[in-house]
Amino acid sequence: MRQYVVLRDRLKADTRRQKSLIRNIAGQLFPELVHEFADFTGLAALAMLRHHAVPSVIRDLSRPAFIAAVRADFTGQQLAVSKLRRTYVLSQRSVGVQHGTEALQQALRCHIDTLEMLERQLEDVEASLLHTFFGMPEASYLLSVDNLGQITAAIILAEIGDPSRYSNGSQLVKLAGIQPVQNTSGRKTRSRTPMSHKGRSRLRTALYFAVMRLIQHDDNFARIYRRFQQRDKNPLTNMQALGALMNKLLRILWALMKHQTFYDPTYEMSS
Description:
Blueprint: H1 2-29, H2 43-52, H3 55-59, H4 63-73, H5 81-91, H6 101-134, H7 138-142, H8 150-160, H9 169-176, E1 184-185, E2 188-189, H10 201-217, H11 219-230, H12 238-259, H13 265-268
Antiparallel strand pairs: 1-2
């Protein structure tokens, strides 16, 4: 299952690269678009950019013809026509590049096609990852933690591997690299103890985003997060509290898998 996680990361990195290239080229051809499309890789923006990223091409069309042409490439449910109307107005006075626009427009189409292919592949890989995850007995125990998220839970289990290999939760904490370590600088020893960051980065990242989501949507996690920061003795900073909660979450997940039981927030979060 870990191979799916590695492949997913590669596809996500490739997807980010294609999105960056699309934004860069679109910014050269039609820099004023930033005022209408915060995300150049949304469905409406991509439908327009595929054939109408060059302002001079838009100016050769009437506004209804421009909107109809973009609609032909649109794959979503509802086209943002008002944005296209304003885009048409912006095209009349655009300061985008004037030469080599045909090559840039073709490059833009290539990157859009590549992006769409990568997104389809990413969907397939995530579906395979979840299919494998749901076939494992530990899945139901992990997902008993509300708001953990299926993909996040699958990544955590994939990075941990067989939980029976570990005799206690501290071994998983070390595997993730989230155990506190003494922070020293030269001859000075500071009181703050950040994470070691020497473990598996994917596991650490998954735990971080899991905790961020749980703080927002789970009252028990939000309560203990505040308690870490507001306690009278040794209160923690925001990041230290997040690290402590990541540590606690991983220990909870290990206990659920070890004892083959479901999450009981009233018991686990009372400590």
